[in-house]
Amino acid sequence: YREAWDKDKTQISIPSDTPVMLQSKVNALNISNKHYQKAWDEAKAKSYDLRADAIPIKHAKASRDIASEYKYKETHEKQKGHYIGCRTAQEDPKLSWAARAMALQNDRIYRKAYHDSKAQVHIPVDALSVQAAKECQTLVSDVDYRQYLHQWTCLPDQNDVIHARKAYDLQSDNVYKSDLEWLRGIGWLTEGSVDVVKAKKAQELLNERLYRTRPDEVKFTSITDSPDVVQAKINALQLSDVR
Questions:
Q1: Residue 198 lies in a domain
Q2: Is 124 exposed, middle or buried, given 0-12, 13-18 or 19+ CB atoms closer than 10 A?
């Protein structure tokens, strides 16, 4: 099908100066990557002259030195361990300021003057504040508030004393429970107690065996010549398949 067309394609001749051919050549030059980079490739093939003191080179070096971590810490590493212009640590203002700040923040040094002077306080014994403190201590002291009586101040056979003893005996928990001391340590069986008897009675009421009487336990004798028994026998004979 395409054989004739394929032969004709190779035999077609178009003049090179036609507008279509000229436009196609221009388009080929515009989209050609090689023609687009031709000037750059020619410039790369030639040697370039770029001086070391050129402004872009200096700017790049300065930016690199600023951004470099080594250059940033080079001065610090050189000065480490050396005191410039200070023979001792006390002459260095920064070290002196740091030591002063540490001393101000130290709690032991802050309280040193107080601890040295707190044992050297002298107060007269008759000072008004000391006397007031003694009186206050006497008022709040439990020892001075309670005065225990070591001897009887009344006769033991007085009526009020006897009445007080009887009242103490009535209010005493030990006397109240003295009649139960003989029961302490003695074992006790629950048989016969109110709760046990009540439980047994409830069990007897709920016992099915005691509530219902089985039919085979009831004594019963039927009369053999009663009308219903005779009629039942006649019905049985009539319905019997054997007869």
A1: yes
A2: exposed
